[in-house]
Amino acid sequence: MSIEKINQAKAEIAATSAYKTITAFFDADSFCEIDAFAKSGEGFAEVVAGFGTVEGMPVYAFAQNSDICGGAMSKAQAAKLKKLYGLALKTGAPVVGFYDSVGGRLNQGTELLAGCGDVLNAAASLSGVVPQISVVLGTCLGTNALNAASADIVIMSKDAQLSLSVTGKHSDAAYNAENGIASIVCDDADKAIKAAKELILYLPSNNLTMAPQSFEEAPAEDGCGCVVSRTVDGNSIVKLFNDYGKEANVRFARLGGQVVGIVVTKGKELGCKSANKVAKFVRFCDAFSLPVVTFVNCPGFESIKSATKASAAYAEATTVKISVVTGKAIGSGYVALAGTGANADVVYALPDAVISPVNVEAAAFIMAPEVMNVATDKQAEVAQKFADENLSAYNAAQNGYVDGIVEEAQLRQTLISALDMLSGKGVSTLSKNLKITVNGVAYDVQVEELGGSSAPAAAAPAPAAKPAAPAGAQGSVVVKAPMPGTVVNVVVSAGQAVKAGDDLVFIEAMKMETPVKAPQDGTVATVDVAKGESVDSGKVLVTLN
Q: Greatest CA separation found in the chain?
């Protein structure tokens, strides 16, 4: 095929709305398309897909091309998306999908259904491994909506549609926001694309990396007036699920330049929607090791169902968890969100906080019935006075249930210091007895799983470039990898003298670091691997003379 025809095909694709969407998302000139010329019937596949950078961070993305058969899902589109998800899994980079499709190519029958299933399965394999963001810019109905809605974060343009029903029933952005499907609703497509770009800067690339840090900014003076806006970095709050479960707020924000998840309870009992929202958010933060700071002002839960939903998410999460009691923490509200049930690493309280097993009036009647022997219209006042004296944060601190009482003016610096202190947190789970075989020899080993998420780990980052081998022949003594794994450290360099038994290289396999030692005295001739490199059993690591 002539270069003229190839360039003509490129120009045809570049003129589509999908291509313009995806290039608006990525940094200028960073987009690299995959399967650019993939065919679907007589035309190009109905999706543009590839990778690039967003503020220098690697990201995979696809945009359904409504200019080609309305963006309808086909087996060709499914194959293209499956490949993209596979690359994201191998390299450990986020996936952002821009949806604008009338549905599927129904004439493909079961092949279409199989393709949709392949895409959904590929996306599911990335759950908890890399962040996934869906951006619904136009129509997204039927099985296509299933994949869009399964992402960690769903952004919708105000006029977009998202529904399993091909009739478009309950598909508008407002309905999806009110029912906890749409995380963010934007006024138009341009703002939705911008929101996705901003979110990328709050999320780690995968479950083995840290979220990008930024310069610390003082809290904005024109904040909303709440304790959160007066505590976190200025202009750093990203609101999620604002129209769903309104007894609690969930946010991303920065604190001292570090990204944290924020949960704010607003002084009312948490219903099922609020509990679901909080639980989903905490689990996402846990999967990607984002610290969770919970501002507790909660008299309890509406039902057992809502209480168990939220409490289980907190109890299971092993990421950094800090609780701040800002108002009342009553009964299950304290246990699930701040106390031992939440397994919080540190619990702080403002000086006027109240911590009680039941509401203050009931507590007063039970604990000091004599003080409540007053007129009915005076009982609330008397109960509050009793609570201030007997159910205060100071009382809880005396009994070891609050780690510190902090005035609001010092809260920001206190939280920043706590985050710094807890940055190296690691949690061990139950040990596992395994049998592994290395070079034909069986070993019984005990392995402890560290960290928070049980999700599969993302592929290791690309290894650093190998150092240039020194001039001259390879050494006469060849030291090989005894097992497959990842090089985590190289402790020698060419020309260095070593003794028999000296450590040369460390290899990590099965979450254990194994030293590879010098078999005899000698001088290092070549170092044939670099830190971060994946090696197979028998790979040459070092040679000696």
A: 98
Q: pLDDT digits over 187-196, tens only?
A: 999 999 999 9
CA distance 343 to 347: 10
pLDDT tens digit sequence for 71-99: 888 888 999 999 999 999 999 999 999 99
**Which H or E run includes 143?**
helix 143-149
DSSP state, residue 282? H
> Is residue 540 within a helix (H) or strand (E), and if so which, with residue range?
strand 540-544
Cα–Cα distance for residue pair 18/37, rounded to 1 Å: 14
Length of the chain: 545
Q: At what angle do helices 110-124 and 75-91 cross, to 10 degrees?
A: 10
pTM across the whole model: 0.76
Q: What is the pLDDT of residues 396-412, one digit of tens each?
A: 888 888 999 999 999 99
> Which is it for strands 238-240 and 248-255: parallel, antiparallel or unpaired?
antiparallel
Of 429, 194, 170, 420, the closest CA to residue 317 belongs to 429
H helix or E strand, kind and range, residue 500: none
Ranked by mean pLDDT, which of 98-102, 113-117, 427-431, 505-509 comes out on top? 98-102
Distance between CA 33 and CA 36 in Å, rounded? 6
Name the residue among 422, 274, 275, 270 with its Cα closest to residue 346.
422
Buried b (16+ CB within 10 A) or exposed e, 172-189: bbebbbbebbbbbbbeeb
Nearest to 79 by CA among 46, 124, 32, 127: 46
Strand partners, 172: 161
Cross-strand bridge partners of residue 5: none
Spell out the residues 6+ positions from residue 245 whose beta carbon is closer than 8 angstroms to its own: 180, 270, 271, 273, 274, 275, 276, 277, 278
Instruction: Please state, in angstroms and rounded to a whole number, the distance separating the CA atoms of residues 231 and 90.
Output: 38
What is the full DSSP assignment across 81-138? HHHHHHHHHHHT--EEEEEEE--B-GGGTHHHHHHHHHHHHHHHTTTTTS-EEEEEEE
Q: Show Cβ contacts of residue 264 under 8 Å, excluding neighbours closer than 6 positions.
A: 226, 228, 248, 249, 250, 251, 294, 295, 297
3-state secondary structure of 406: coil
285: CB partners within 8 A, 6+ apart:
261, 291, 292, 317, 319
> What is the number of other CB atoms lying within 10 angstroms of the CB of residue 506?
17
What domains are there in the chain, each with its CATH number? 3-200 (3.90.226.10), 238-353+392-421 (3.90.226.10), 428-544 (2.40.50.100)
Contact 14, 7 (CB under 8 A): no
Q: E strands of 365-427, at which residues? A: 404-405
